[in-house]
Write a structure and sequence with these properties.
single chain; Jelly Rolls; 7-stranded antiparallel β-sheet
Length: 514
């Protein structure tokens, strides 16, 4: 029986010991948690209780109560820190504690949660921000000071101007009061700008007369002032009248200048209109001269249209020939001619040049000095492998197309060279002037003797397309003559000037004789 009842008693004993041990551990953990919770409050009494100064007073009261309490309570207060006390905390505005101690209450502590910033600014950033604010404040202060100084200067200037106006007004009044009535009103004032057309010369004469009249009045006033003005009473008013008259005269002169400028603008516009009309008249005259030339040369001794040549015997800036036909807009061309140079090896000069308004070097064939012969199109240059220095007749052909600026140069029917990118995609402009024997620096003139051609020119033809090598060879061999479809070599289309001679000449027969 003892063995049967002893086992349950042992189990109960073990259970009781386990429960007792668990309760002891819980009590120990609770004591540790309370100690940990009370330590920060003891380190910072001001933060233990909310309320600022009231919290401080409550903490001091709790400290005093803890000091006055007996030993066990003082030790417990030291355990919980300054935040815990033997009695309840004093409330703000509550009456002072009585002499009788309150009954003890259970001590308690509480957790305080203080929000912290996500990131604290460093000392360098705070210093930079403070320095930037100081600089901005100094800038604003300097700007305000400048504005204040500017306002003061403007105010002083306005006051000075007001004083000057009052002084000049007073002087003018005193001066006018001292003049005779005849000088005060020398006659009716005429508005010279009131009527008359802007482009009338009579208006300019009237304005000049008005200026002279004002100067005469000024002279009379200066002569009469010593007799009618009291210099002792007012020594400074004398210059006021001339100053006023000078200002009036300056105003009239300004109006006259404006009128002259307006007339100059109208004159420029009229000159442009007259230039356009002159060009139209020149075109009509060219057509009439073409008809007259056709009638005059109707009974010419040489009937073939190409049986002539242009001869320029010496190098100068006044002998040349002009083609009396306007060219259309060209996207390709071939120009062929017979040339015989008599320059003596010092450069062949300019066999021909074509200029248009705004571009003097639209098409130029030129050999200057000892440089190779060059082809210029819209001021773009290509050197041609051609030579005319043997004083003999040579057939020259040059073909060009705006597509990629392709060009080819032929001499005596043989291809001498070719290239590309010469004024690519640039169309030849129409309505220009074509000159044989001179290089144009302006439209139709301003020749340079050093660039003049010396020799003979014949069979100058122009096509609006590139000829084939076979066609070029046929023209050079005199086996396949071909006239230009844009500009043929005809007597009525070529006119000689300045002593250049147009003589009968068959180039194929003449070349054989030469």
């Amino acid at each position: 029986c003892r063995g049967a009842s002893g086992a349950p008693a042992a189990r109960l004993t073990l259970k009781f010991l386990a429960v007792l041990l668990a309760a002891g551990m819980l009590a120990f953990l609770g004591a540790v948690i309370c100690i940990i919770a009370s330590v920060p409050l003891a380190a910072s009494p001001a933060r233990a209780l909310p309320g600022g100064a009231d919290n401080a007073s409550a903490a001091s009261a709790a400290s005093a109560a803890a000091a006055a309490s007996p030993g066990p309570q003082r030790s417990l207060s030291a355990l919980h820190g300054a935040g815990g006390s033997a009695g309840p905390p004093a409330l703000p505005g509550a009456p002072a504690a009585s002499a009788h101690p309150l009954p003890p209450v259970p001590l308690f502590s509480r957790f305080l949660c203080t929000p912290l910033a996500a990131a604290c600014p460093s000392g360098a950033e705070q210093g930079d921000a403070a320095a930037g604010e100081r600089e901005e404040l100094l800038l604003l202060q300097s700007t305000a000071e400048q504005l204040r100084q500017t306002a003061l200067q403007q105010e002083a200037r306005i006051r000075a101007d007001q004083d000057t106006i009052r002084e000049l007004t007073g002087k003018l009044g005193r001066c006018e009061s001292g003049l005779p009535r005849g000088l005060q009103d020398a006659g009716p004032r005429r508005d010279a700008m009131a009527d008359g057309p802007w482009d009338s010369p009579a208006l300019i004469l009237e304005l000049e007369d008005a200026v002279r009249a004002l100067r005469d009045r000024l002279d009379r006033i200066e002569q009469e002032l010593p007799a009618h003005v009291n210099f002792s009473a007012a020594p400074a008013p004398v210059p006021a009248v001339p100053t006023a008259l000078h200002s009036k005269m300056d105003e009239l002169e300004g109006q006259l200048l404006a009128k002259v400028l307006a007339l100059e603008k109208e004159r420029v516009a009229l000159s442009h209109n007259s230039q356009r009309q002159r060009q139209e008249v020149e075109k009509e005259l060219d057509a009439l001269q073409d008809r007259v030339a056709g009638l005059e040369h109707g009974s010419s001794a040489y009937s073939p249209p190409d049986a002539f040549k242009i001869s320029i015997p010496i190098r100068n800036n006044y002998m040349y020939a002009r083609v009396r036909k306007a060219l259309p807009e060209l996207y390709a061309f071939t120009v062929c001619m017979w040339l015989r140079s008599r320059s003596g090896g010092s450069g062949q000069g300019t066999p021909f040049s074509y200029s248009v308004p705004g571009q003097a070097n639209e098409i130029v064939l030129l050999e200057a000095g000892h440089d190779p012969m060059e082809l210029l199109i819209n001021d773009k240059v290509a050197q041609l492998p051609l030579s005319l220095k043997d004083n003999g007749w040579h057939h020259i052909c040059i073909a060009w197309t705006t597509r990629d600026g392709l060009w080819s140069a032929y001499q005596d029917g043989e291809l001498q060279g070719s290239g590309e990118n010469l004024a690519a995609w640039h169309p030849i402009k129409p309505h220009g002037i074509l000159i044989l024997g001179q290089e144009q620096d302006t439209l139709g003139g301003r020749f340079d003797a050093t660039q003049a051609f010396v020799g003979d020119i014949a069979q100058f033809n122009l096509w609006d397309h590139a000829l084939t090598p076979a066609q070029v060879l046929g023209i050079a061999n005199c086996t396949g003559p071909l006239l230009g479809n844009v500009l043929p070599w005809e007597d009525k289309l070529v006119e000689a000037f300045g002593g250049a001679k147009k003589t009968t000449f068959d180039v194929c027969k003449g070349r054989a004789k030469a």
